[in-house]
Design brief:
Length: 465
Amino acid sequence: MKKHYFHFYATLLLLLTLSVFISCKKKDDTQQSSVTSQTDPEITNIVNNISAKNIKANILKLVSFKERQTTSDTVSDSTGIGAARRWIKSKFDEYSKASDGRLQVRYDGYLQEPARRIAHPTRIVDVVAVLPGTQPGSKDRMYVVSGHYDSRVSDIMNDTSFAPGADDDGSGVAAVLEMARVMSKHKFDATIVFMAVAGEEQGLYGSTHFAKEAKEKNWDIAGMFTNDIIGSSTADNGTIDRKDVRVFAQGIPPKKELTRRERMLLRTGGENDTGPRQLARLIREMAQQYVPGMNVNIIYRNDRYLRGGDHMPFLAEGYPSIRFTEPHEDFRHQHQDVRKVDGVQYGDLPQFVDYNYAARVTKVNAASLADLALAPARPDNVGMSIANLTNNTTLKWDANKEPGVAGYQIVWRDTNYPYWQHHKYVGNVTQFTVKNDSKDNYIFGVEAVDKDGHTSPAVYPMPVR
């Protein structure tokens, strides 16, 4: 009898083992030789060196200028927007010196005549620090990260009252400064532009000036991040969320005339596969890989209702751009005069900033920027063959001419699922057929991959015969 039980339990254990093996094998098959799980020690080093202490010091310094309204004082060395921008430039200059001059720092300004929310002629000045790419075939490709250093109170035309702007947007500027400090010590294939812009509260003036200049000069901006209100983890009802950050990513742009590609995206169900949304998916993957426990919540919108950000002028010029913002905003601490009403504190004060949370959002930014600037450019002319009725899916693309390209990866997902579920590295080819997975049932994309496993954002294929 004991022998019978022994054989029974041994057989049961064997069946359980086989079940686990088959389950794991199925999981492995689903991932199909993915290269996206490789971790780069250099990116890990960048992420680990982002300092909450430095972010706090930078925010407190920005608050110390008292008012940073776009039209505020530019002469004083201690108060006003002029003093703030000179200090920001001094920090970039400090990081430039530490990088042996590789970080190139400049003012980029123009004279704005009186206009909406601008009462008198005002110089709008962006502070720009460029870290040039080191690979000849990639250095013209650029990634821009920004925060805005102007602030405001309840009356948008009031440029003399105390406007601390700790979270909106001292947090974003502090993140950009900290990324410049850490990342300028490293070398990247593509170029990274760190930027503190002005005039955001008055109507996105500084970012609009830069985006228009980029378009006029035909700059290849392959991705743009703006960080605006990323410093608080506490909602207006008191709940705390340190694990989530929102990334706003536009779909088909709301304009009268759509391009042929935009119309085809709508026709084939690819409206969630625009440049900004592919960028957001990559950011989410980088967060999972390099900032454990940090969830990127992709919002399928340009921005929040009644609000806007410095990514919008870049979107208008056709550049893939996204916005980082904390998960739950407390509007008592934005665009408010500093005051107490019935015991409730109003105003954008530093006491409402969670510096460790801001640092985690900065780490997500840094990991994503580093991966993008180390990875090859997106594949060009990605197409999906529709010449025949078949349950296989054949994808084609042009060879990437950058020297670091090792090959390509095909990704796909269910049509009603937001993130890539399947990955298959196919080597250095320009055509591949995915067997038994029909283009009718899935959304596909193609990524370029380098020898270290850095991947470009995916590109949605256009139907070709």
